[in-house]
Specification:
mainly alpha; 68% helix; 0% strand; globular
Length: 143
Protein backbone atom coordinates (compact mmCIF):
# COMPACT_ATOMS: atom_id res chain seq x y z
CA UNK A 1 0.00 0.00 0.00
CA UNK A 2 2.03 2.90 -1.26
CA UNK A 3 1.21 6.56 -0.96
CA UNK A 4 0.33 8.32 -4.19
CA UNK A 5 1.32 11.93 -4.85
CA UNK A 6 -2.28 12.88 -4.07
CA UNK A 7 -2.11 10.97 -0.74
CA UNK A 8 1.15 12.68 0.18
CA UNK A 9 -0.28 16.11 -0.56
CA UNK A 10 -3.40 15.31 1.48
CA UNK A 11 -1.29 14.10 4.41
CA UNK A 12 0.95 17.15 4.41
CA UNK A 13 -2.03 19.49 4.10
CA UNK A 14 -3.93 17.85 6.91
CA UNK A 15 -0.88 17.66 9.18
CA UNK A 16 -0.41 21.39 8.70
CA UNK A 17 -4.01 21.86 9.86
CA UNK A 18 -3.38 19.60 12.87
CA UNK A 19 -0.27 21.48 13.99
CA UNK A 20 -2.15 23.97 16.19
CA UNK A 21 -3.73 21.12 18.19
CA UNK A 22 -0.78 18.75 18.06
CA UNK A 23 -0.21 18.55 21.82
CA UNK A 24 -3.89 17.79 22.43
CA UNK A 25 -3.97 15.17 19.67
CA UNK A 26 -0.91 13.35 21.01
CA UNK A 27 -2.14 13.46 24.60
CA UNK A 28 -5.65 12.30 23.76
CA UNK A 29 -4.43 9.55 21.40
CA UNK A 30 -2.00 8.12 23.95
CA UNK A 31 -4.55 8.48 26.76
CA UNK A 32 -7.10 6.52 24.72
CA UNK A 33 -4.58 3.81 23.91
CA UNK A 34 -3.73 3.33 27.59
CA UNK A 35 -7.40 3.16 28.62
CA UNK A 36 -8.86 1.15 25.74
CA UNK A 37 -5.87 -1.20 25.45
CA UNK A 38 -4.65 -1.54 29.08
CA UNK A 39 -2.03 -4.11 28.10
CA UNK A 40 -0.05 -1.22 26.56
CA UNK A 41 0.50 0.22 30.06
CA UNK A 42 3.21 -2.38 30.67
CA UNK A 43 5.62 -0.34 28.54
CA UNK A 44 5.10 2.70 30.75
CA UNK A 45 5.22 1.04 34.19
CA UNK A 46 8.03 3.40 35.21
CA UNK A 47 5.65 6.39 35.02
CA UNK A 48 4.11 7.41 38.33
CA UNK A 49 0.82 8.48 36.71
CA UNK A 50 -0.71 6.72 33.71
CA UNK A 51 -4.07 8.46 33.95
CA UNK A 52 -5.47 10.22 30.88
CA UNK A 53 -3.85 13.60 30.35
CA UNK A 54 -1.27 13.18 33.13
CA UNK A 55 2.09 14.94 32.77
CA UNK A 56 4.00 11.85 31.51
CA UNK A 57 1.19 10.93 29.10
CA UNK A 58 1.12 14.49 27.80
CA UNK A 59 4.90 14.63 27.42
CA UNK A 60 5.09 11.35 25.52
CA UNK A 61 2.06 12.27 23.40
CA UNK A 62 3.93 15.39 22.30
CA UNK A 63 7.03 13.29 21.57
CA UNK A 64 4.97 10.91 19.42
CA UNK A 65 3.43 13.79 17.48
CA UNK A 66 6.89 15.22 16.83
CA UNK A 67 7.78 11.80 15.41
CA UNK A 68 4.70 11.90 13.16
CA UNK A 69 5.74 15.30 11.81
CA UNK A 70 9.29 14.03 11.31
CA UNK A 71 7.86 11.09 9.36
CA UNK A 72 5.89 13.47 7.15
CA UNK A 73 9.11 15.29 6.30
CA UNK A 74 10.60 11.94 5.27
CA UNK A 75 7.44 10.67 3.57
CA UNK A 76 9.31 9.59 0.43
CA UNK A 77 11.69 7.32 2.34
CA UNK A 78 10.04 6.28 5.59
CA UNK A 79 12.02 3.10 6.36
CA UNK A 80 15.36 4.88 6.02
CA UNK A 81 14.11 8.11 7.53
CA UNK A 82 12.76 6.41 10.64
CA UNK A 83 15.61 3.93 11.05
CA UNK A 84 16.89 5.48 14.29
CA UNK A 85 13.39 5.41 15.82
CA UNK A 86 12.92 1.83 14.64
CA UNK A 87 16.18 0.76 16.27
CA UNK A 88 15.29 2.59 19.50
CA UNK A 89 11.90 0.90 19.77
CA UNK A 90 13.17 -2.55 18.75
CA UNK A 91 16.46 -2.84 20.61
CA UNK A 92 16.33 -0.46 23.55
CA UNK A 93 12.65 -0.08 24.43
CA UNK A 94 11.57 -3.50 23.12
CA UNK A 95 8.10 -2.32 22.20
CA UNK A 96 5.84 -4.90 20.56
CA UNK A 97 5.29 -3.46 17.06
CA UNK A 98 1.56 -4.20 17.22
CA UNK A 99 1.37 -1.20 19.56
CA UNK A 100 2.26 1.13 16.70
CA UNK A 101 -0.92 0.03 14.91
CA UNK A 102 -2.95 0.34 18.11
CA UNK A 103 -1.71 3.90 18.62
CA UNK A 104 -2.43 4.90 15.02
CA UNK A 105 -5.96 3.55 15.35
CA UNK A 106 -6.48 5.68 18.48
CA UNK A 107 -5.05 8.67 16.65
CA UNK A 108 -7.52 8.23 13.78
CA UNK A 109 -10.38 8.28 16.29
CA UNK A 110 -9.02 11.48 17.84
CA UNK A 111 -8.58 13.15 14.46
CA UNK A 112 -12.19 12.36 13.61
CA UNK A 113 -13.28 13.89 16.94
CA UNK A 114 -11.14 17.02 16.66
CA UNK A 115 -11.73 17.70 12.95
CA UNK A 116 -15.21 16.38 12.12
CA UNK A 117 -15.67 18.62 9.08
CA UNK A 118 -12.15 18.27 7.69
CA UNK A 119 -11.63 14.55 8.29
CA UNK A 120 -13.35 13.47 5.10
CA UNK A 121 -13.26 9.90 3.79
CA UNK A 122 -10.44 10.80 1.34
CA UNK A 123 -8.40 12.46 4.11
CA UNK A 124 -9.11 9.49 6.38
CA UNK A 125 -7.82 7.11 3.71
CA UNK A 126 -4.64 9.14 3.10
CA UNK A 127 -3.87 9.58 6.81
CA UNK A 128 -4.60 5.90 7.51
CA UNK A 129 -2.27 4.82 4.70
CA UNK A 130 0.43 7.20 5.94
CA UNK A 131 0.16 6.01 9.55
CA UNK A 132 0.24 2.38 8.38
CA UNK A 133 3.46 3.15 6.49
CA UNK A 134 4.89 4.84 9.60
CA UNK A 135 4.02 1.80 11.74
CA UNK A 136 5.61 -0.49 9.14
CA UNK A 137 8.78 1.65 9.04
CA UNK A 138 8.99 1.61 12.84
CA UNK A 139 8.69 -2.19 12.81
CA UNK A 140 11.48 -2.50 10.21
CA UNK A 141 14.17 -3.57 12.70
CA UNK A 142 11.98 -6.29 14.19
CA UNK A 143 12.46 -8.49 11.12
Amino acid sequence: MSLSAKDKAAVKGFLAKMKSRSDEIGTESLSRMLVVYPQTKSYFAHWKDLSPGSAPVRKHGITIMNGIYEAAEKIDELPGGLLTLSELHAFMLRIDPVNFKIFTHCMLVVLCMFFPEDFTPSIHRAIDKFLAQVALALAEKYR
